[in-house]
Amino acid sequence: MTWRRALAALLVFAFGSGMPRPDPGAAAAQAALVFVHAGRSLAALTPLYALRRPLGLGILPRHAYSVEISKDAPAHGVEPLLDVPISGLGAGGAPRDQEIRQAVLDEFFTTPGVVALRLDADARTAPDARVVRDIFEVARARGVWFLDAPGGSAAAGTAGALGVPVLVASDEIDATPSDGAVASRVRALIARARRAGQAIGIARLDGPALAVVARLLPEFDRAGVTLVPPSAFLR
């Protein structure tokens, strides 16, 4: 086969075989998706790993598979984060700062290898400022960064003051947990990434978002939006 025929065959394969073609008018853009509340099941991760895209994964500590998931996720191109269940810290009276810090440190031990943390708080209750500070004291010592909720929070200011790097999520894409609503938010996230250059979406692992994202992956490709691990946005 001549080199001209070989080149022609390659072009036919690339553009005629269903390989996604980016929109030529799309600007270079990146998006990160973080699926949270892993740790209860290994089966829930099968469709996540099947996406074969770099993602973030929030892992709850002290669950049956927390350690195993934390160790295995990077091999699948998935960046592990610690979901800190803040409502349980500082409960039962007024524990000393050292007790709170030790409790947080214990949670890191059940999620080895995590690169960041997020606060898994009850939306109805404002986190105690002292507990938040203790959490970030440990985060600074561990060298991890903080992923804040969409819109940002006072916790980001505490983290920043302590020298903990902060990223703020753009949207909770499964805030309304229906296929149609999630699809609308995923498309809005793609548009935001194209407009601003980057965007971060958060969703529960056990909700409808994972299946919706799997279905809409070609739309990321056509829009020229590359999925990256969330730490890619650290400056």
- Uncertain parts: 3-27
Number of helices: 8
CATH class: Alpha Beta
Provide the domain count. Answer: 1
Largest sheet features: 9 strands, parallel
CATH architectural category: Alpha-Beta Barrel
Q: What is the averaged pLDDT score?
A: 86
Rg calculated over all Cα atoms: 20 Å
Number of E-type strands: 9
Q: Give helix % range.
A: 40-55%
The CATH topology label is TIM Barrel
Going by helix content, strand content and strand pairing, the class is: alpha/beta
Q: Would you identify the CATH H-level superfamily? A: Glycoside hydrolase/deacetylase
The N- to C-terminal Cα distance equals 48 Å
Shape summary:
globular
User: Order of helices and strands, N to C?
Assistant: HEHEHEHEHEHEEHEHE
Beta-strand residue percentage: 15-25%
Notes on the structure:
- It is a single chain.
- The protein has helices at residues 3-16, 46-50, 66-72, 97-109, 129-142, 154-161, 179-196, 209-223, and strands at 29-38, 55-59, 78-84, 116-119, 145-148, 166-168, 171-172, 198-204, 225-227.
- By secondary structure, it is of the alpha/beta class.
- Helix 4 (97-109) crosses helix 5.
- Strand 3, helix 4 (97-109) and strand 4 form a beta-alpha-beta unit.
- The N and C termini lie far apart (48 Å).
- 37% of the residues are buried.
- Residues 3-27 have low confidence and may be disordered.
- It has one domain (25-233): Alpha-Beta Barrel (TIM Barrel).
